[in-house]
Amino acid sequence: MSTWFEDAFRPGSEIQGKWNGRVYLVERLLGSGSNGVVALVRRGQMKYALKAGYETVDHQSEINSLHALSRTNTSFRNFLIDVDDMVVQGKEVSFSVMRYIEGMTISDFLHKQGQDWIYVIGSKLLKKLTELHKNGYIFGDLKIENMIVSRYGDVDLIDFGGVTPKGRAIKQLTEVYDRGFWKAGERYAEESYDLFSFAILLLKVLDRKNRFASFPKMLPQNREIELLHAIMKENPPAARLAPFLHKALNSQIATSEEAYQLWTGLVSNKKVSPKSTTMPWLKICFAASVCIFAATLYIYW
Ligand SMILES: Nc1ncnc2c1ncn2[C@@H]1O[C@H](COP(=O)(O)OP(=O)(O)OP(=O)(O)O)[C@@H](O)[C@H]1O
């Protein structure tokens, strides 16, 4: 017998919301995780990502965060399109419909375009975090799988299941990205929590020796931030970013705005600027991202 999502997400089948009545045509499965199954769907000419939740409580919590963010004057505005229930194999399954983000993982992007793109992607990711943080939220479960990189290094966050209002306990995390795992701080929703995960994400994606594969099995007493220093020594972009990474790993950067300033200072400094054939594009993209960020700050705050 097929599972409920194989039934619901068979390419070409239609999903109709029980309450709002909207009909979505399934194109293909995009992925699945601990909270749900995500499919690429169409309604008219528009493409969307439709997520059907396994656990109503977790899915509901993600929907609540998305609802709140979708109402803000940020790039997350209208990210959430629809929320409804569908009936599959006689059971009600809740689903949410979100903006569809086309792109690839940061690992695949850097593999294709070169590691120097980390400077552009990092600055764009910091801008996303700044928007969230300014609106009183912490992303919580920042990791490679929860972001999509599209053309010119644009960054989108997906999976808002870990989004937590500032001041509360972190509600969803992934071990190696969690500062509690490394005995480097509390699982408390503050900006430095996301900045720690941001530093881990960069190191993980830049590490060519796949050290992170063994970290989850490591005994608690052996989990030392110093283990990550080897990556900073071996990898040229990580070495250039080392002053930033050290501070972020030690929760010495209080806000993402401060992190952005520090990042910009390091990357635009001649000694640390990326050198590669992609440089003109990198410079243009980085300069454009700085201008857009400044304009966003000016308009909204
Ligand atoms: N808005 C979106 N646009 C494009 N693809 C998406 C979108 N949302 C999710 N996906 C795809 O679906 C996959 C699973 O989604 P998601 O990470 O939200 O599920 P999850 O159950 O919350 O996962 P996790 O176990 O990491 O918590 C993602 O890895 C991504 O490939």
UniProtKB/TrEMBL annotation:
Signal peptide (UniProt feature, chain positions): none
Keyword Transmembrane helix listed: yes
Segments passing through the bilayer: 280-300
Gene3D superfamilies per record: Transferase(Phosphotransferase) domain 1 (1.10.510.10)
Protein's recorded name: Serine/threonine-protein kinase
Pfam families: Pkinase
UniProt keyword NAD present: no
Binding residue positions for ATP: K51
Segments forming domain Protein kinase: 24-282
UniProt keyword annotations, A-Z: ATP-binding, Kinase, Membrane, Nucleotide-binding, Transferase, Transmembrane, Transmembrane helix
InterPro entries (UniProt xref): Kinase-like_dom_sf, Prot_kinase_dom, Protein_kinase_ATP_BS, STE20_Ser/Thr_kinase
